[in-house]
User: What shape does this take?
Amino acid sequence: MLKIAIDGTAASGKGTLAKNLAQKYGFAHLDTGLLYRKVASDLIVKKKDTDNNLEYLSCKYAKEVEFSELKKEYLRSEKIAKLASLIATYPKLRKILNLKQKEFVDINLNKFGGCILDGRDIGTKILPNADFKFFIDASIEIRAKRRLLEKNISFLHENDEKCMLHALIVKMKNRDKLDRSRFEAPLVPAKDAHIIDTSLMSAEDLLLVVTKIIEGRKNIKEKNK
Ligand code: DC
Assistant: This one.
């Protein structure tokens, strides 16, 4: 049974990699960012996102999160991402969501023969004993371009596109900074993680590279049995 931890920056390709690997091996997959995004979304919907008791309310909503509610489409906005990154600095909230992530692994590991979690602290905190750890990153310009492409907007003027790209770069830089500098479980590669820069790689290339690493080590283990 394999546990695979994938961490990295926003739009680095880690989510697509996790999805592709889960499909390839038939493993269960949890995009852990969606847990933080769901709590952030609930705060916004209930107009509590500027409440003085943000930490208390985040914890309250986190306890109510169901895995079945984690649909990516409506949790995608930059507004939700920004608040998710802010509340992710609360140690009490992280504790609650960490338990949910471990619960996901407990429920699904046997059932599917493997689990893949992607996020920011999977290799360092949630699955420190993972069989494979990957840390995925890419240049900020490339990541912002990927996010812009996902939005599927057709621009009338080149300048509008440049403006939007610039605004995205600023937002993503701020979020990276907060994720990397928070006291509790900051975004850092685990010591034993394979670090991969996807700036010049397609999703297919990345899947090939990672599969090679997994298959290579699996073969060594089987030979030594
Ligand atoms: O992966 P994402 O962009 O959907 O994550 C949104 C935010 O959630 C991210 O900026 C930080 C937080 N997060 C976290 O702190 N730990 C995780 N394991 C996953 C996400």
